[in-house]
Amino acid sequence: MTQSIPGLHHVTAISGAPQGNVDFYVGTLLQRLVKKTVNFDEPDTYHLYYGNSHAEPGSILTFFPFVNAGPGRAGPGMASAVAYAVPVGGLTAWMMALAEAVVDFDGPFERFGEQMIALNDPDGLRIELIETDRGTADMAVVEDEPVDGGFHSVTLWLDNPDRTARLLTDVFGYSSAGEASGSDENRYRFLAAGQGRGSAIDLITSDAASIGRQGTGSIHHVAFRAENDEVQMAWQETLRGQGFDVTPQIDRQYFNAIYFREPGGVLFEIATDPPGFATDESMDALGQELKLPAQHERIRDQIERVLPPITIPQRKAK
Questions:
Q1: Residue 228 has pLDDT above 70, yes or no
Q2: End-to-end CA distance of the chain
Q3: Distance between CA atoms of 10 and 217, rounded to whole angstroms?
Q4: Inter-CA distances, 170 with 36, 192, 269, Å
Q5: Residues 92-128 pLDDT 10s
Q6: Of 11, 153, 168, 282, most Cβ neighbours within 10 A?
Q7: Over 60: is that where the pLDDT of 1 sits?
Q8: CA distances, 92 to each of 105, 173, 262 (Å)
Q9: What is d(CA 318, CA 291) in angstroms, rounded to the nearest whole number?
Q10: How many angstroms separate the Cα of 33 from the Cα of each of 79, 257, 313?
């Protein structure tokens, strides 16, 4: 198979109460709420999708807001951070905006020659903002106006990165792009072909003692892009040929999905670009109404009684 993965499609995490999640990602990080639906397997829980203005693959961060969930903790075998791309020269505006919003952050500091800052969302999920020209070269930087370019990367915390690295390079078509060592961690960067959104993956090993657990502030899975169903089915065949236990195709309404565990234990998904998020509401109206899959429409009244109301803060145009 000569096909290669072009980059990330989405990342899915777990949060606590949905209102605080919406306030932070729409009101503070200026993401667009592109879809308000439910967890297909637990329809008494929201599934919230955030992305850029056009709801494009490679910009989508989603959450299952479990109100009564305990705190999660990153550790080996888990994704531990999500990074957004910022156009070169645009990090200062973000630092000013976060300071005005009284949001604490670390940095700026440099990683692989790129300037970045790091912060935690209200549930403790690590979010990074990284200046880069990968996927952002055509984006204008406006003075004092924070703007993002979709995803930069995701970080995977592993006990041993070797087999995961081979999956990325030998199967997915990524290339090794450097190593960096810190006081308590080693970091290895891999890049997908091209310069698109979400084209970087970092693997880390760490001396920090931690046993990862799912809960609020943790990442549930990482999804990669497939351009269409045909490409996705080719990936399914390739991965099964490599010995991975890959699920059948699952209809997620806005994309089709297959899942498998990569060698380090992180849950990977390959998701199709189509049909996209404008299948059941117009692009201008994304995220404004509760959208349900067909199998749950018959219990809409019951679902709406259980779900807490959400107020969407005004989002500054970017």
A1: yes
A2: 39
A3: 16
A4: 37, 12, 18
A5: 999 999 999 999 999 999 999 999 999 999 999 999 9
A6: 153
A7: no
A8: 12, 34, 37
A9: 25
A10: 23, 21, 10
How far apart, in Å, are the Cα atoms of 265 and each of 75, 78, 164, 180, 208? 11, 7, 9, 23, 18
Chain centroid offset of residue 74 CA: 15
User: What is the rounded distance in angstroms from the CA atom of residue 58 to the CA atom of residue 224?
Assistant: 8
DSSP-derived secondary structure for 152-197:
EEEEEE-S--HHHHHIIIIIS--EEEEEEE-SSEEEEEEE-SSS-T
Angle CA(9)–CA(15)–CA(18) in degrees, nearest 5? 100
Q: State whether residue 276 is helix, strand or coil.
A: coil
pTM of full prediction above 0.90: yes
Query: Is the backbone of residue 279 left (phi > 0), alpha (psi -120 to 50) or beta?
Result: alpha
* Domain 8-306 annotated CATH 3.40.50.720: no
Span 161-182, pLDDT tens digits: 999 999 999 999 999 999 998 8
Q: Rounded to an integer, what distance in angstroms lies between the CA atom of residue 43 and that of residue 56? A: 25
**Domains of the chain: which residue ranges?**
8-306
